[in-house]
Each structure stands twice: as structure tokens, then as C-alpha cells.
Write a structure and sequence with these properties.
alpha/beta; six-stranded mixed sheet; 7 helices; 8 strands; globular; disordered C terminus
Length: 204
């Protein structure tokens, strides 16, 4: 058995709300019909996981139309509470919003999650993914999720330490992380990281 395990973190394709710069953590907005996605080889993945929000479910369906897709609600984007669906222009004069912009890792949106709550949820969700990959003795999995989720996981697992905002994760793209199986079981950082190669655009 190959002792290497790879998990790809893939950001959903763009939505109309993304295009207008709205905060859409748990808002269940659909994928833009013309959203471009990196092409992946569907046959190379043993298990396919996805956030349960439709922009991720629709991305997963386009990438893997004939495969079983496992929803993981814990891997949703951060909850923006009362700011859901609003833009910077809508909120720029809100005092709490200005405080959050200055310190997003301690201030939370009204009715939303703070960064610690978000991180705890993401770690729990990713743990369930890892357990399924390891217990099934599979070598490759993919998680279709959100930009904030991917940035959080990269700060925790990437071989090179970077801050949350240093990670650039465009819509419709993926990053593959590879571990030795025992290292992944012990929740260690991965041994290598690479972008999913873009060979073509999928437009529908």
C-alpha cells in the first residue's frame, strides 16, 4: 500500500454575489452559469467531499457529474450574521464593521461567528474528511469548499507557514496537499503542496 495520501482543497466557482463583493458566508447563492473551473481528472480521486452550500455542490457536480459526492456541512464558509449579502459600501459606516475590518481574528460579525468558532468548526469538519480517507485506505480525496476554509486549512497544514491573508485562492482553483499517511493521522503539516494544474476552462 502506498503510504502517501493527497487531499485537494478546491474553491467553488464564482457566484453573482462574489462578483458584486458581497459577504455570503452561509447565504446559499448559486454558481454563476459562466463560472470557470480548473479541469481535474475525475478518475484520480477516490473520495469527493463538498460543503453543503449549493455553490460548492454545483461546482462538485460539474467536476464530477457521475460520482458520489459527500456533503460536509461543517466545511461551510464563516457565518457573517447580519452582514450576509451586504457589501463594503453597505457597511463602511458601521462602527462594528470598521472594528472587524481592523481586527477580524477577534471581533465577530453581529449574529455571526468569530474566527475561533470558525476554526474549531473547520477542524472538526476536516477531521471527519481525514478519518474517512484513512479508514477507507484511499490515497486521494478532494474537498470542494470556500476561500476562508481553504485559507484556514493552509495556515494549519501547509509545509510553509504563512498568515491567513497571505494565501491566494482564486475561485474555481485547487491546491493539493500531500502527507505521509502516519503524518496525516497525527494531524501534522503536509510534506508537499502544489496547485492543481489548469489545463482548460470548464464553462458548463
Amino acid at each position: 500500500m502506498d503510504e502517501r495520501v493527497a487531499i485537494t482543497l478546491f474553491r467553488h466557482g464564482i457566484t453573482d454575489d462574489n462578483k458584486r463583493g458581497a459577504y455570503i458566508g452561509w447565504t446559499d447563492t448559486p454558481l454563476n452559469e459562466a463560472a470557470e473551473l480548473a479541469t481535474v481528472d475525475a478518475d484520480q480521486y477516490d473520495l469527493i467531499f463538498t460543503s453543503d452550500l449549493q455553490r460548492c455542490m454545483q461546482t462538485a457536480k460539474r467536476l464530477f457529474p457521475n460520482r458520489k459526492r459527500i456533503p460536509v456541512p461543517l466545511l461551510r464558509e464563516i457565518l457573517f450574521g447580519e452582514w450576509e449579502g451586504k457589501t463594503y459600501a453597505d457597511l463602511e459606516h458601521d462602527i462594528q464593521y470598521r472594528s472587524w475590518i481592523d481586527d477580524p481574528f477577534t471581533i465577530s460579525p453581529p449574529g455571526g461567528e468569530n474566527y475561533a468558532q470558525f476554526g474549531q468548526r473547520i477542524e472538526e469538519g476536516f477531521k471527519s474528511v481525514v478519518e474517512q480517507v484513512i479508514e477507507s485506505q484511499n490515497q486521494r480525496g478532494i474537498v470542494i469548499t470556500h476561500g476562508g476554509v481553504i485559507r484556514y486549512l493552509l495556515t494549519k497544514y501547509a509545509p510553509e507557514k504563512r498568515s491567513f491573508w497571505e494565501w491566494k485562492v482564486p475561485h474555481g482553483s485547487g491546491i493539493e496537499l500531500e502527507w505521509k499517511r502516519d503524518d496525516l493521522r497525527r494531524d501534522m503539516r503536509c510534506t508537499s503542496l502544489q496547485e492543481v494544474p489548469i489545463t482548460a476552462n470548464q464553462n458548463g
